[in-house]
Structure prediction request, 339 residues.
Amino acid sequence: MAKSILSEFIKGLPKAELHVHIEGTLEPELLFELAIRNKIQLKYPTVEALKKAYSFTKLQDFLDIYYAGANVLQTEQDFYDLTWAYLNRAKEDGIVHAEIFFDPQTHTSRGIQFGTVFQGISKALKDGREKLGISSSLIMCFLRHLVELSAFRTLEQALPYKDQIVAVGLDSSEKGNPPSKFADVFAKARTEGFKLVAHAGEEGTEDYVREAIELLKVNRIDHGNASIQDDHLMDALNERRIPLTLCPLSNKALQVVRNMEEHPLKKMLHKGLVVTVNSDDPAYFGGYINENFKAVANALLLNKAELAQLARNSFEGSFLSEVEKAMYLDSIEHYCANN
Ligand code: ADE
Ligand code: ZN
Prediction:
């Protein structure tokens, strides 16, 4: 199929984004604008020089630059502007629902109040619902390189906003920071009524995916690439309908896969797993959700039926209600019947 026809099909396909870090949507241009607004001296003299630094060989290379970039986020307005820019970009890509990560500890550790971060993001999400028609929810991630006590404190800070945070998650440096380190705080989050997700099997092994499921009792795995190493695990993910939120361009940029042709997405899809396509940190990895769809479509030779199934999975794997899921799934069937 001609590339442009597939691009058009992808663009119009209704889809949900389930794995995007709001701090990872900070485009270099906005980063510079906020640095000027907040009188913050940057290490790089120009946008171009900053962009040149976006060359990674592993997750930690990226995380160092990503946390440094987040320093320009200071006020509620900054968090609003960041989130509003993402939502407008998401709209262009046909995203109708987004479940968005934020990392409170990245900000509270610099003296920014939890409420400042939360209010800025959630006001933009409200405007996104009202002005752009994008439904959304928030997922609060704990940074796994920090101690569990810090995660407990963060959970405590989130409790006043509990009805506006759908889930807690786990991100940052995976190797050496297994899910088991956070078993107690995840158990507490569960009793508070939060849904649970965790990054696992991105750089870590399939054991981390198993731990996230068995010890943390997550509803969803973020990445989960390493699951492909273990047939029993793949069967369990399939039988229990535990989604994997895959991020192809991120995996390429961080050398989780050597090239896109080796990405496990198609094998997982054909096994029947609830795999979805997501953008992770699009400002750093060279593309938003449609670029991710196109990258796998081209490298793995996906057809329209497979792309439509990935879009269906994005709603099946979401934290939307069954009624909302049915409505979005209907819109995909309608779209496919006409395109
Ligand atoms: N934080 C932001 N992006 C991440 C990723 N890809 N893996 C782990 N932590 C992250
Ligand atoms: Zn991620």
